[in-house]
Amino acid sequence: MNQKQYPQRWTGRWADQQTFDSVYSTIPAAYQCYRDIIKDQKYEDPRSLIRSGFKVYGQVDEDGIIQEIFRRIGIRNHTFIEIGCGYGLENNTRYLLKQGWSGIWIDGNQENINYINGNFLNSIGTRLEAKCCYINKDNVNSVIWPSSVIDDREIDFLSVDIDGNDYHVLSVIDQVNPRVIVVEYNAKFPPPFDWVMPYNSDHIFQGDDHFSASLTAYTRLMKSKKYSLVGCGVGGSNAYFVRDDFVDEETFLAPFTDKFHYEPARYFLIFGFINELPGWNMAGWRAGPERPEPVATD
To answer: Which keywords fit this entry according to its UniProt record (predicted)?
Structure first.
């Protein structure tokens, strides 16, 4: 490469200095927008999850919301499964792993799994199991169970983010009984629009709006599985469902409906939560053609 280049989010391609600088110039504005949003009266109730959000290794505010949910309902066995884990430097469960939890990371990209196996050496085989598999509704149950690091089907936390067949995969999972489930919804379709991406076992995300399902569809599905929607992330990506035996109006903010908890798509907030200096191990950036340099990850 003749000039200094930087990883570009989403595409995995490379951006020049001008593009990189233009993205970074949006960060103060995006973060201020976040601060303005959470001042809304809707979030003043202490049972609301929004103001608990913060980023450690998640994309926006996931780490704080997940921590707050478990502060309220307690932790049973410190176990998780994340389907669509990436290469481990930014996802919904790395912060849990950092705190001593055990679990399974699953991703369809072999390079991601190779990176995890080569850089999470203190956890692999003892607290962390990394599996390479392109998940669909026919194989998901056999992939997540049995596990070499989890011995109880009642896991604490399940995260599903595969940019496509998420709804269909979630609908058939029956080998584990999570207490908390987070799934990426498609915020383009606000309540009461009930939309699900048609199932396609070979679907590959194209960076467009053809993925997953609306929040209304997820709320309907999860109600049938005896889970309640307790909140969404401020970025309009993640919906948080808690098993009904841990949900009451003293613990979480009712009503537990898609209409009440829906957050619109605010994907620009991602750039307000980049919290390290530019570099390969920077939280919030996806690697390009090469994997990041090895870093102390666990």
So the answer is: Methyltransferase, Transferase
